[in-house]
Amino acid sequence: MYIKMLIISAIQGITEFLPVSSSGHMVMLENYLHYNPQGDTLEIILHLATLLSVLVFFNKKLLSLITLKGKWQNPLLLITVGTIPAGIVGILFNNKIEQVFDKSSYLPYTFLLNGIILLTFYFADKSAKKDKPNDPMKSFLIGVGQSLAILPGVSRSGTTITVSRWLSLPREEAFDYSFYLLFPAVLGALFLKRKQVSAAIFNPLYIFGFFVAFVFGVASLIILKRLVVRGKLYFFGIYTIFLSLILFIT
Question: What domain range is 214 assigned to?
Answer without folding.
Answer: 2-32+40-249
